[in-house]
Design brief:
The strands form two sheets. The chain has a five-stranded antiparallel beta sheet. The chain has a two-stranded antiparallel ribbon with strand order 4-5. By secondary structure, the chain is an alpha+beta fold. It has one domain. Helix content is about 25%, strand content about 25%. The protein binds zinc ion. The site of zinc ion has 8 residues, from strand 7 and helix 4.
């Protein structure tokens, strides 16, 4: 099992964890229904902003503390009909279910317009997607093992993504 699944977070924890937004943006950030979250089955907690359709948010644990980022969905949409892959959970899906998101870098770089972009599941629910039980395969008979592998990969990639956002040039 991954070492740092999301531990339970309060609204205050989540607002304090955001590394790449202004105080005003953080104060206005809507939060998901935290009482409904199954914390032990999340590599990261992700949600979209119902008031601002291009915005999304993502929080995960790294080195014993939560790190949160604000994301912006790009207008550029992928060609319909083709399949696309989320860079975090690596699940292939119909293209409209995967979006290009950009995140400002933390600190001065981000204020100067320096962003990092990647393709992520549009609903920011990779943790739910990777837990869809795979069909048993001859060389990989244990679905629980497949899900554990996916979870570990997802956690490593989301940690690498935010580490990149936090890296100061
Ligand atoms: Zn995904």
């Amino acid at each position: 099992m991954p070492e740092e699944i999301v531990k339970q977070l309060s609204e205050i924890d989540i607002r304090a964890s955001i590394v790449n937004a202004t105080r005003g943006e953080i104060d206005r950030m809507p939060l998901p229904g935290l009482h409904e979250v199954l914390w032990e089955s999340r590599e990261y907690l992700g949600w979209r902003d119902p008031q601002s359709r291009h915005r999304g948010y993502l929080v995960h644990w790294t080195d014993g503390r939560p790190v949160g980022i604000v994301l912006r969905e790009s207008d550029a949409s992928l060609t319909r009909g083709i399949s696309a892959m989320c860079a975090l959970c690596r699940t292939a899906q119909p293209a409209h279910q995967v979006s290009m998101f950009t995140a400002p870098r933390a600190g001065e770089a981000g204020r100067n317009g320096n962003t990092i972009g990647t393709y992520i599941c549009a609903d920011l629910a990779c943790s739910l997607l990777i837990r869809i039980t795979p069909a048993a395969q001859p060389l990989h008979p244990d679905p629980a093992e497949i899900i554990a592998d996916r979870a570990e990969g997802l956690l490593q990639r989301v940690q690498a993504f935010t580490a990149d956002i936090l890296r100061t040039a």
